[in-house]
Amino acid sequence: MFGIRTQASNVCKFGLPSLDSALDGGLEQGATYIIEQTIGADADPFVLSFLANGLQKMDYTYLLSTEQTFDYYKRIFQNFGRNPEIEIKNRRLRFIDGFSGSFQTGLSSAIMDADSEGLGILKLADISDPREVNEGIRQSLLHVQKGLNTGIRGAILSFSNIIHTISHSNQAFSFLQTRRAMDKLENTTTLISLNSDAHDPIFVRAIEHMVDGTLRVSRVEDPSYENPLQQVEIVNIKTKAQLTGKQIKFEYHSGRLTDID
Fold this sequence. Notes:
The protein is an alpha/beta fold. It has a single domain (about 10-260), classed as P-loop containing nucleotide triphosphate hydrolases (Rossmann fold, 3-Layer(aba) Sandwich), CATH 3.40.50.300. Helix content is about 30%, strand content about 25%. The chain has helices spanning about 15-20, 45-55, 70-80, 85-90, 130-140, 160-165, 170-185, 200-210, and strands spanning about 10, 25-30, 30-35, 60-65, 95, 110-115, 120-125, 150-155, 190-195, 215-220, 230-235, 245-255, 255-260. An eleven-stranded mixed beta sheet has the order 6-7-5-4-8-9-3-10-11-12-13, with helices on both faces. A two-stranded antiparallel ribbon has the order 1-2.
């Protein structure tokens, strides 16, 4: 039955033991977090591991993409042992396509149901209006009976593309204010990726101040390992100031996140 309540813990885990431990168990529910991605790093598997862990816990999830099509994320989900097509059909996962039609011209800005393959995929025809992006997220979760015992996780990949399409930076701040208010109201935990090197540092700092916490994913070269490592730094968690500055290294290889520390 859709819309039933699921028993959720007070924190949302990534499934990467060292990181979850560094976060004092995981991320708090009902909060909005920025995931900064620096040049050379790949934060997508890191973020999707968070959603996959939620699906494993029977949380409802949404993924809004402005960078890739569904097929790209499908492979990553499968590497984490989740079948996204089944999750979509069971309405545990909603994919919001803000990429395929959002950068074309002459399209209506209405939200369309792109269900050509029997999947409940929502399509955003215009990401230049942050209000419509938030509306797309709201519509994707209409089937969920929200409450304190309902686990809901979301991810927006990436916020940078939305920022580049809007006419004024104040719209970006308005989007974050609305997203954070809705996350708290509906007890949703949302990760928003940001290509931090593509924006003015002062602008990035302003964004960091508007959310509940910031994690930064960077690429690390280590001669001891054949493949480049990824490093997650806890830039700030507002309710857990003592965690600031902690760094966790991990490896993404053969479709898996592996602890290094």
